[in-house]
Design brief:
The chain has about 230 residues and is α/β, with parallel strands linked by helices. The chain is built from nine helices and nine strands. A five-stranded parallel sheet has the order 6-7-8-3-9, sandwiched between helices. The chain has a four-stranded antiparallel sheet with strand order 2-1-4-5, covered by helices on one side. It binds adenosine-5'-diphosphate and magnesium ion (MG).
Length: about 230
């Protein structure tokens, strides 16, 4: 596959191997994986199957030991550490399992941290906040509240607002529904998928909860994607 052909993909992985510094065997070995722009992808797999590791490779938080990880036509290994942070901040929205809000900062301060690299002005920031809060059904009066004063459901929606404030081309979400009951889960998924579709954002969503599959245009099983168990364990 030539570099030219890889150009049009949101994600393209080739012969990727990742091993944690202190572990003996690789935890991830992906021969080939591609995602088209605008696709809504559900990645499922058991706990420990490498889902979070894969997401960290996509965001450049981790760098593969070998092989090529291309995200939005950018080879992650070609970026030095500061450039990787900048690339992530500008192009990728990430919602972590624990939301990673700063508890002592207000909602608005938490969201503002995400625009440090993108340099959007005050007015655009305010406009987008209002739009996102309205889409996410969040009360604007919460803006000044400390993040740790919010309910889990509210924190989750603030984490999504923060992930989307820069209008990223790629949105990565790691097991966000674990803390939600069934009704809240359905509402959350409907909203997330609608936002991704409206903004033509490629969505990579990871969960062990297979009941969420119908919300997505494509499903990927870690056991199909990750060949470490067959090839690297002897
Ligand atoms: P998942 O998100 O599917 O539960 P992870 O990607 O977190 O799986 O973990 C995949 C494997 O890598 C597991 O065996 C886990 O124990 C191991 N692992 C995860 N993080 C580290 C780390 N920082 N150092 C060493 N091993 C790790
Ligand atoms: Mg995980």
């Amino acid at each position: 596959m030539s570099a030219k052909q890889l150009e049009t993909k949101a994600i393209a992985l080739r012969n990727v191997i990742y091993r944690y510094p202190k572990s003996i065997a690789p935890v991830l070995h992906i021969d080939s994986w591609e995602v088209e722009h605008g696709e809504l992808v559900f990645i499922h797999g058991l706990s420990g199957s490498g889902k979070s590791t894969l997401l960290n490779l996509l965001t450049g938080i981790l760098v593969a030991n070998s092989g090529d990880v291309q995200v939005l036509e950018q080879s992650i290994a070609d970026l030095r550490s500061v450039k990787r942070d900048e690339f992530r901040a500008k192009n990728i929205g990430v919602v972590f399992q624990q939301f990673n809000l700063f508890p002592y900062l207000s909602v608005i301060e938490n969201i503002k941290l995400a625009v440090y690299f993108s340099g959007i002005g005050h007015d655009v920031f305010q406009e987008r906040c209002q739009e996102l809060f309205s889409c996410l059904n969040l009360d604007l009066a919460l803006m000044e509240s400390r993040a740790d004063m919010l309910s889990v459901g509210q924190q989750q929606r603030v984490a999504i607002a923060r992930a989307l404030i820069n209008r990223p081309k790629l949105l990565i979400v790691d097991e966000p529904t674990s803390a939600l009951d069934n009704e809240a889960k359905h509402g959350f998924m409907t909203m997330l998928v609608r936002l991704a579709k409206e903004s033509q954002t490629t969505l990579i969503f990871v969960s062990h909860d297979e009941t969420l599959m119908p919300f997505f245009s494509q499903q990927v099983s870690m056991s199909d994607l990750n060949s470490t168990r067959e090839k690297d364990v002897n």
